[in-house]
Design a protein that fits this description.
By secondary structure, the protein is mainly β. Helices cover 8% and strands 42% of the residues. It contains 3 helices and 22 strands. It has helices spanning 129-135, 208-213, 301-312, and strands at residues 9-11, 13-18, 25-32, 38-44, 49-54, 66-69, 85-90, 95-100, 105-110, 115-123, 142-148, 152-157, 163-168, 194-206, 219-222, 228-232, 237-241, 249-251, 253-258, 265-271, 277-282, 290-294. A hairpin with a 5-residue loop joins β3 and β4. The longest helix is centred in the last third of the chain and has 12 residues, at 301-312. It is globular. The termini are far apart.
């Protein structure tokens, strides 16, 4: 349901199915460089391996996957088997951030240098419901992550309860996230090398409408339109979220789209250049586990305007 009380849950349709050479796919993201080049990155939680390919301007182009083990990188603490990697994101410098649910931490890795640049423990202090759930060995923790400017992170806590949490150094203040306020394309995420401890600076709980629409939080992604998008596995839904005010509070739903029947658990979210959703599926076999959906839901506004202008221009013979 949207703010006007009417259903915003539109149906998405499968445009293309792709084989990702990973079992139990758990996260996908786009790496955007300053020159406009884009790569799709995928990780799984069964083995410590990463897969990626260069994204073409055409949605139907041939895909050539590259893979690399990340279990034996210098300075990495990732185990070879069952690494519990739940999400991935990348900065403009080509470095990749991996989110572990257990233990609650992230690693920033440099694939070119074959090393872990930084290891960050994620801590929720206090004794409230979310702090207790975060510290519970059997509790639910991070399932999605977005890079923020200033070296902060936005993490989706999956369930019991679901929430969005901004993490940063203990002496820093919450930034929140407005439209267009995520780490810019091509920018390096600032962090010193070594081990760090980040604490929860702000927490946003879903409002009633979002809680009804998305039963859990499975991944986060910034669309080409600069908006924050959320993937829900249990509800099989993609949601566009409103701005997150600095300091925490509630997060509200703007629009939502239903994924339809997919053969696997929706675990990862990304978008094409045109704003079409890409969803990674957790399947036992490394087949048909990446799905391109239509229509586009995260288009840049100027593209829609140009398309409307072309449709209204008189045709000449």
């Amino acid at each position: 349901m949207g703010r006007n009380g009417k259903s915003d849950k539109n149906e998405l349709h499968v445009r293309r199915l792709v084989d990702v050479p990973l079992r139990e796919l758990s996260g996908i993201c786009l790496r955007r460089s300053r020159n406009g080049r884009m790569s799709l990155i995928a990780v799984g939680d069964r083995i410590a391996k990463i897969a990626w390919f260069s994204l073409s301007r055409s949605d139907g182009a041939r895909i050539d996957w590259h893979t690399k083990s990340i279990a034996k990188l210098s300075g990495s603490e990732l185990p070879k088997h069952d690494p519990q990697i739940e999400a991935v994101c990348a900065d403009g410098g080509g470095r990749v951030l991996l989110l572990q649910e257990t233990p609650a931490r992230v690693e920033l890795i440099d694939l070119k240098a074959l090393e872990a640049v930084a290891s960050i423990d994620l801590v929720v202090e206090g004794r409230d419901e979310i702090a207790r759930a975060w510290s519970d060995p059997n509790g639910s923790r991070g399932e999605g992550v977005v890079l923020l400017p200033g070296g902060h992170l936005l993490v989706a806590k999956e369930k019991k309860p679901a929430a969005l949490i901004e993490f940063g150094p203990p002496d820093s203040s919450s930034r929140g996230l407005a439209r267009g306020g995520a780490l810019p394309d091509g920018a390096r995420w600032p962090i010193r090398k070594g081990r760090h401890r980040f604490v929860a600076l702000a927490i946003w709980r879903p409002d009633k409408t979002l809680a009804r629409t998305c039963a859990d939080f499975s991944d986060l992604e910034i669309g080409p339109d600069g908006r924050l998008y959320l993937l829900s596995d249990k509800s099989s839904t993609i949601a566009r979220l409103d701005d997150l005010p600095a300091g925490g509070g509630t997060t509200a739903l703007i629009d939502a789209w239903h994924l339809g029947d997919l053969d696997g658990k929706p675990e990862g979210l990304a978008f094409t250049r045109q704003g079409r959703p890409i969803v990674g599926l957790d399947t036992r076999k490394a087949r048909r586990n990446l799905v391109l959906l239509e229509p586009a839901v995260a288009e840049l506004r100027h593209r829609r305007v140009k398309r409307k202008l072309r449709s209204t221009m008189p045709q000449t013979s």
